[in-house]
Design goal:
Blueprint (H helix, E strand, L loop, with lengths): L7 E7 L4 E6 L4 E5 H6 L4 H4 L15 E7 L3 E6 L7 E3 H9 L1 H14 L16
Antiparallel strand pairs: 1-2, 2-3, 4-5, 5-6
Protein name: DUF971 domain-containing protein
Organism: Shewanella livingstonensis
InterPro entries: GBBH-like_N, GBBH-like_N_sf
């Protein structure tokens, strides 16, 4: 018997803390960082057909916008310009429920490849 992936029933961006609050139909709510969503983007650009690249320098990244995709996913547009990942409910559920383990794997890979989470340049943009 296969277990179906819970459906997302609510998504709320906490822009100040750079967190995305995701609620599933099983009443579980998770907070996941924009940085984690960006470095684990399901886009072909990041995933490289099963050989994911190491995404670095995204500690300060935030979400600029989100667009629903049918009843199964959300397109997340990040403020660094990345906008090609479709986060299905299954992908979001996996990232939310396994975030501690996935994050430790990411940090280990970052250390091994001498990468950095820090932004390359400080982005302080003001709109007039």
């Amino acid at each position: 018997m296969t277990q179906s992936t819970p459906t997302v029933t609510g998504i709320k961006l906490k822009r100040q803390s750079k967190l995305l609050e995701v609620t599933f139909d099983n009443s579980k709510t998770y907070n996941i960082s924009c940085e984690m969503l960006r470095v684990f983007s399901p886009s072909a650009e990041v995933q490289r057909y099963g050989n994911p690249i190491l995404v670095t320098h995204k500690k300060a990244v935030n979400i600029k916008a989100m667009e629903p995709v049918g009843h199964y996913a959300v397109k997340i547009i990040f403020d660094d310009g990345h906008d090609t990942g479709l986060f299905s409910w299954q992908v979001l559920h996996n990232l939310c429920t396994n975030q501690a383990e996935l994050w430790q794997q990411y940090l280990a890979r970052l250390r091994a490849e001498k990468g950095s989470r820090e932004a390359l340049i400080d982005m302080n943009i003001k709109y007039s």
